[in-house]
Amino acid sequence: MPWLTLTIFLPLAGVLFVLLVPRGNETAARGIALATTILTFAASLGILASFDTNAPGYQLVDQATWVSSIGLKYAVGVDGISLFLVLLTTFLFVIAVLASFRETPNVRALMATILALETFVLGTFLSLDLLLFFLFFEATLLPGYLLIAGWGGDRRASAAIKFFIYTMAGSAFLFLAVLFVYFQAHTFDIRVLSHHAFAVSTGRWLFLGFLVAFAVKAPIVPFHAWQPDAYTEAPTGALLILAGVLPKIATYGLLRFNIGLFPEAAQHFRGLIEILALVGIIYGAVVAIVQTDLKRLIAYSSISHVGFIVLGLFAFTQQGVSGSVLYMVNHALSTGLLFVMVGLLYERMRTRDIGRLGGVASVTPKMAALFLVAGLASMGLPGLNNFASEFLVILGTFGANKVWGSIAAVGVLLSAIYFLWAYQRSMHGPLRDEHATASVRDLTRWEYLVIVPVVVVILFLGLYPKPVLERVNPATCRVKLVYQSAPTPLDCGPLPIATAAHGTRGGGWTMYAPLNVRVDGSP
Amino acid sequence: MVSQVNLPPPSSFAPGVMGLMWLVPALPLAGAAINLFFGRRTGRRSGVIATLAVGLSFVVALVLLFGLLGHSSNDRTFVQHLWSWVPVGALQVGIDLRVDPLSIVMMLVVTGVGALIHLYSIGYMEGDPREARFFGELNLFVAFMLLLVMADNFLLLYLGWEGVGLCSYLLIGHYFERPSAAAAAKKAFIVTRVGDAAMLVGIALIFVTFGSLNFGQTIGATNPAGKSLPVFTAIALLLLAGAVGKSAQIPLQVWLADAMEGPTPVSALIHAATMVTAGVYLVVRTHVFFEVSGTALTVVLVIGVLTALYGATSALGQDDIKRVLAYSTMSQIGYMFFAAGLKAYSIAIFLLVVHAFYKALLFMGAGSIMHALHDETDLKKMGGLRKAMPITFATFVVGWLCIAGIPPLSGFFAKDEILAVADHTGRVFAWSVALLAAFFSALYLSRIVFLAFFGPLRHDTDPHESPKVMTVPMVVLAVLAVFGGVLGLTELNGVLPKFLEPVTGPVPEATGGLSTPVLIAISIVVALVGIGVGWLIWGSGRIDWVALRSRFRRTHATLEHGWWFDSVYGAVLVAPGKAGAAFAAYVVDRRWVDGFGNLVAKGFGVSSNLLRHLGNGMVRRYALFFLVGVVGVLWYLAARA
Amino acid sequence: MKTPISYFLILSAVLFAIGTAGVLVRKSALVIFMSVELQLNAVNLSLIAFGRMHGDLQGQVLAFFSMVVAAAEVVVGLAIIVAMYHRRRSANVDDANLLKW
Predict the structure, then answer these.
(1) Which residue of A has its CA nearest to B203?
(2) Between residues 380 and 399 of chain B, which touch chain A (CB distance below 8 Å)?
(3) What is the pTM of this model?
(4) Residue C70 to residues A88, A445, C36, C83: CA-CA distances in angstroms?
(5) Chain B residues lying within 8 Å of C80, measured CB to CB
């Protein structure tokens, strides 16, 4: 089975079916969209089933020549890094369609847009061809724009335009860089490109070109100005994708292209990026503290989380990189759930303003409890999903540079401050009079259907992330191969400690060699 | 897989009973799941379910204890690997449970005292609309606490560590409609998380230093010769930061008094008997780091002594009976840190155990009083409860005498041994400070006893004794508090110190100082003086303590506000922090970052505003431009040719 | 004797200049249109003149093309003018200034 191609294009087929539905038959449109996403998810499980855990390279490759004159190929393949991003995408799209069921008007168009977006996102993660990647990457912009502009909040027009223009401005650099790569290497094939040695200065310029595009899309501070507006205005279902999946395209690109293709430049600019990431971690969290709109607050917290992801990628230790890949998955789940909960809250209270909320937990205890679960996951409570990745990133960064690692840990504290303070003011305390009269219902069965799957995955990944990590690890080790010319290779091997696994206290001191974690190249 | 650590590794698998250790945290976890997910169906039965879960867990822990005793004292470490948790490269962290003398003691305290408090809660929480949720969270707490003390690696310990913090947050905020409770819950979580963040860095440093997070390869493998001393000091101090936060020691002690907003059983279980002592457990568990460092050990000692005195004095200024007990808890944990700082780890654990008995008992007594007086916590409005509540009174007296340090009650032995070690190892100044704290300890509890149980009734209700389901646990704990001293009759040869020795090492031997009988005499005299002064002020009726208070208004206010720590933190940290965040959000983000984007947009706007006048809709003007353009191009071409 | 090519070209240039001036200064869309036709015919004239000079038919062929295109253009253009007149009761191009900023 060509699982990858099937997974990528199933949603596009769904678009056709949705458009064939007669106008006005909204239930059918929703049903088709849901069925399509579920089928796509099933197809992605097919990828997982046929994935070889221990193989480090690209697997399940499908390829065909597309435009032979410029060597443009349709080539898709999956490795440990993209595997779970794909699964995450197909999973979250099911949830996103479910969460968009109540969205009106123009249901057909909404569903078609969401499905189209799914194809583009999946294509981005799976492309083995740089130009194909670029096309998919750019294509995600349009549905993203439509979702905000078409079904967003009151200030959707300006938010959508801001989103579009900022991202487009970044993409201009990406386009130039992609073309330039072709003129240098005469191929778009990522597998070939990763062995191509670019001249030092060329590599650095190209690195910057890719970086700008991804920095805007992720977003990395200070390129984030579009993000709080876009997230605040976007409808809940779309937000799952917009805030959950789309930033991962950028961080995935950072790992696959910036680090994978230009290792020397990555090494060269590492300090700069790590500092930007650290600034993002602290800055996003600090700004989140004083936000009054819950959605904006989560948007800024997302900036902080993206900072962690970038930090781990450029730590260049295996814990850092694997942790980042895991973090990409986890952040989408926890932030997605948070946005869903805020969406439900808004439906009931007609406000997201923390100052006008209060005491919600006493009327809708279950909703408040699940909101807390989402928040705790997002602030990295051990046992929930984010913790393992956050710890790995901090640990990996710490192994590379103790100061950076320590600063990142401050983010752990700040996340508790902004979330718990907001939770206290909105959920705790006495119920405000203006809400006391409104008939507010706790979660319905239907809403559980949206929330429970996410919570289950959050718990599972919190207690047993091993299935993910054991597939990610070989792939992140492969990054090391690309890196061999760079001064700080990832450490992938087993612990260089040969002695017995069990130390003793009574039986004298056992000597253990220090771990081979290098600080800035020194052994 | 269960392996016995001290034997040569893979050959040894623990027989039989030790394999049950996973049940100890699993049972309360199951109880929590039942009560949290099916709360509406469990209803009134939730308390019974929760109590049974913890009770069964206690039974399993007892079985494990006997299993442990069946091995020789050097073979008492068992590790059970449940599943692999976070495996990346050199980092291989599993969900690994460990049973050794130290953890079994903690497990027994947590499940034993925990079960009694659960039982008590059935009576105390009766009629609460969120009863099932309360018991679910209480069970969840016990499960996390057990993970904390049973963890075999630092990451799992951290999981338990944060988990108990979460449950503490949830339970303090049980009455979340009260703004003060909501604020206290948040404060508790955030203040402890300050320490936790540092602890996380410490864990990272441990991994970088040792290449592992398992206790066996880190604590068990510390080799001072191979590593530089500052690393150990750094590790120890970072872990200590976590311990200080969790155990409410200076400078992170500010959350504990506010945490009394939670239901009283919560205060008894979490904020007296178990969670707050986790810091002591951590220091004792990782004492190797502290000892190698030396400096860190001194820091522990100083923090302990200071907090002992701080808590004991601040307790004097509180009118809320629970806040008195909260400060008392800080003070007592200060003693435990003090003991750890003196390398008398087993004595620290000894005090931890007996403190769990008598402090839980005192909180239950306070809860019983509140039960009788419609949730009144103000000492000024109590009085004369001795007759109406005989059982509460009797058990409270046991707790009182324990903290005051009257032989032969358990509190006496624990505290006296700490003071003795301090004197014997030449820490005379610390010893005298601790002695002063002991005096205040006797004083503040005497104050509660005389104000609440003696004198005239200052409350207009008809107090009554609490139901059996509440008094029975109190009586059990009182018996334990009276006889708990047998666990450690002498610091060198007590049952508990001997049992713990394989983990904690022996208590340091005396190198000088006063002889033991003299020290005991001094301790008793100080305790009696404390009680006597207490009686004189609050019990004898000869001194008008209200007038006394207004005469020393300043002093009283200082003590009442816990030496103004909250105000200072508010002014130095919170207010500037909020201002900084506001600056970042409204100036940096909105004006600068967003402003830059808007500036670029405005630049395009201005320039296009200028250019747009060229396109005024006059077709003939367009034609003229066209002509000019064509002529220009032709001119250029002609000129080039 | 053949008429020199320059005669034709000068005539063509004069016609073109008249046409251009007409486009630029007249307000009536119809007159502008006629001026455009004048320009086209000026170009046609030079095409034919060049064809005659080279002694082949290429110039004439091109002129025919140009006339066909011009005819098509007249159809579209007149239709627009008529439509505009229907709407605005005016064929003055200055009144048709909607296409701006």
Answers:
(1) A395
(2) none
(3) 0.89
(4) 60, 70, 9, 19
(5) none
